[in-house]
């Protein structure tokens, strides 16, 4: 098994946190959820961080954390969906990590986030439309920055994990 970090990228609601938690249990490696880490550090929810300090403040914290995680080893890391907006973030995460992109459809994201109110960027009238718009903008970046792409639209959690483990072994 690789010594590298397993770094999950992909759109909000694509399953990075659930997949990351389960892989970390299976491989007995520490799990780091970047959003949770930032929430703990600031002492505010993501919604409150955006509301009180603005998106740029959050992006700066995200960027610093990517730098630190470039030096970590054997971790399972779930990123926030916007981490790819700055290529340097992913370059840092790749220093000691394999970048796995969980790819899915706007419909599947909309379904997963139907009752979710924790994503400030999706707090709009028409969620599906916003998901489509952001996805169109970001998909080329996810694709370009991934070492491995896994289509999770029709895969259950266990199959997704088996595939990732196979890819990194
Ligand atoms: C964001 C995704 C979120 C969180 C923040 C911004 C984005 O993380 O970092 O709300 O820009 O896509 P998840 O992908 O874990 O929802």
Describe the structure.
- The chain has 169 residues and is α/β, with parallel strands linked by helices.
- Helix content is 54%, strand content 13%.
- The protein contains eight helices and five strands, in the order E-H-E-H-H-H-E-H-E-H-H-E-H.
- A five-stranded parallel beta sheet has the order 2-3-1-4-5, with helices on both faces.
- Helix 3 packs across helix 4 (55-69), helix 4 packs parallel to helix 5 (87-95) and helix 6 (106-112) crosses helix 7.
- The chain is globular and about 45 Å long.
- The termini are close together.
- It binds shikimate-3-phosphate.
- Residues 12, 16, 35, 46, 80-82, 119-121 line the site of shikimate-3-phosphate.
- The site of shikimate-3-phosphate (S3P) has 10 residues, from loops.
Describe the structure in brief:
With about 170 residues, the protein is an alpha/beta fold. It has helices spanning about 15-25, 35-40, 45-55, 55-70, 85-95, 105-110, 125-145, 155-169, and strands at about 5-10, 30-35, 75-80, 95-105, 150. The protein contains 8 helices and 5 strands, in the order βαβαααβαβααβα.
